[in-house]
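Appendix B. Chain record.
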Amino acid sequence: MILLFTSLYLTRDLGFSFKTAGLIMSCYGIGSVLGSFFGGWLTDRRDHFSIMFFSLIVSGSILFLLIPAKDPFLIAGIIFSYALVSDMFRPANSTAIATYSTPENRTRSVSLVRLAVNLGFSVGPAAGGFIALYLGYHWLFVLDALTSYGAAILLYFYLPRQSHEEKQKIKTQVRTVESSAYRDKIYLVFILLVALYGASFFQLFASVPQYFSKICHYSEDSIGLLLALNGFLVVLIEMPLIAALESTKKSFRYIIYGVLCLPVAFLILQFGKCFVVWSAFYTLVITLSEILAMPYMMNFALSRPKKERQGEYSALYAIAFGISTIIAPSLGLFLADRYGFEIMFDFFIFTSGFIALGFLLIGNIVKKETQVD
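Structure tokens predicted for this chain:
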């Protein structure tokens, strides 16, 4: 709930300009990318439990600093620190998924975590809006911190720990550079394609709501319902669909299918002419893109590395989406403002085709590697 309502807190409660609020929120994106990097680096040298527990406790504590803060530079520093520490959780969490799942059920495990995230994203905005309206924005920080502490307590009591011998083994193995993610050219190209996919997909939250508002003249509640439909469909469809597809072992085929849903979705917006039914159909198709592509992308990110480099590979995957969340609004809204929404849609239709071709080539190379092994 913090990420969604902080910009409103900065402009409505503190009276900052949109420009100042935007610059402060950009510090979140920078902190997120750096946090993912350091989280992966530390996970490979410590263990996933320690990093997740540290991230939850410290990030929750940082939120209390926002309550008395009024200076924009101080708030920017706090937001940056919060993102840095909280996003250290991501690569450690991905490593935990790889540790506690098997190759046979890993994609389903990823989908289960995504189910939890989408449930949280469904509850968070509603709860945050209620709290901000009736209790005040400061209580957002307090209650969000308490949920982090609650998650840390559950983690402490229920997640198995690695033994001292296992930790020492990881520290010894990680000194070798042969398995480094930064030397894996195939994986680096894969990460670039993931970032491009994310920048295209996140137009769902970046530029498309502006299109619905300015061009289609939808009300805020209508736009909110369309966005909520995305989360609802993920919760409803993803787990059963992934469970049904999991036995096929054709990750890149489903990634490509998911990517190709993007141009279809943008074409629906172009030819739908703002009819609500077509806008809802757009939401369905772009959600199908997410459901097919993202679990299998993450499955490849988790299955590619050796155990001692799990955090490093997971960090790069998290960084790819961190970068895409920074690029998506600036790129989409720049194109829409300068050339219009039609040209913006054309750009992402073309980009999506390029991304699908890239994943096809990567998939063929990985297939040949597997056959050689």
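Further analysis of this model is presented in Appendix C.
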